[in-house]
Amino acid sequence: QVQLHQWGAGLLQPSETLSLTCAVSGGFFTGYFWSWVRQSPGKGLEWIGEINHGGTTHFNPSLKSRITLSIDTSKNQFSLNLRSLTAADTAVYYCARGHMGDYWGQGTPVTVSS
Amino acid sequence: QSVLTQPPSASGTPGQRVTISCSGSSSNIGSNTVNWYQQVPGTAPRLVIYSNYQRPSGVPDRFSGSKSGTSASLAISGLQSEDEADYFCAASDDTLNGPVFGTGTRVTVL
Predict the structure, then answer these.
(1) Could you please report the per-residue DSSP string of A5-73?
(2) One digit per residue, pLDDT tens: chain B, 110 residues?
(3) B5 close contact with A: CB closer than 8 A
(4) Residues within 8 A of B (CB atoms), A 20-39 only
(5) Buried b or exposed e, range A50-82, using 16+ CB within 10 angstroms
(6) Which residue of A has its CA nearest to B5?
């Protein structure tokens, strides 16, 4: 059974950087893209970006300038950094397997507030 | 930003059939396959339909999907109380080069 477990700080101040990591267990790590998606009451579900085991990345153009995605194939983990946070980045952040997401992490609520 | 349009709510009594629509455009549903997700509030989305009509292992055959042109539908037949949740559609978008999601439909079992 594929499982994704994610973690990271949930309360941040404006201008800070969000850092989240997602660990994958129970399945192959190579051969997939690994994605980040966020969900907020105002914007609904929004794709952030994806990375594969070779380090190839694709980003949502609206967030591209603030995102760094990385992957550690030795640990079956991948990570998201989102810089220059504002209140508009407040959301629940999910990691997921694949371009469209067939398995999802449990979600991390992130609040950006001073 | 939700690009795919869904009705905000749908409801039915136990045993009834409920259908949810998802409307997109030629750059997403019109040229790519559709997934459907079930989300109980406070939990992560769960895939219930992929590639327009395929059911992942473990999803009851009460769930079915279809697609026509730039629209897709999810049907839940023999509605059960455990089906009460939010449902989202998703499709890859050729303009975004990533997936776009529906606005979500809250299904209530009366």
Answers:
(1) EEEE--EE-TT--EEEEEEEESS--TTSEEEEEEEETTTEEEEEEEEETT--EEE-TTTGGGEEEEEET
(2) 678 999 999 999 999 999 999 999 999 999 999 999 999 999 999 999 999 999 999 999 999 999 999 999 999 999 999 999 999 999 999 999 999 999 999 999 99
(3) no
(4) 35, 37
(5) bbbbeeebbbbeebeebbebebeeeebbbbbeb
(6) A44
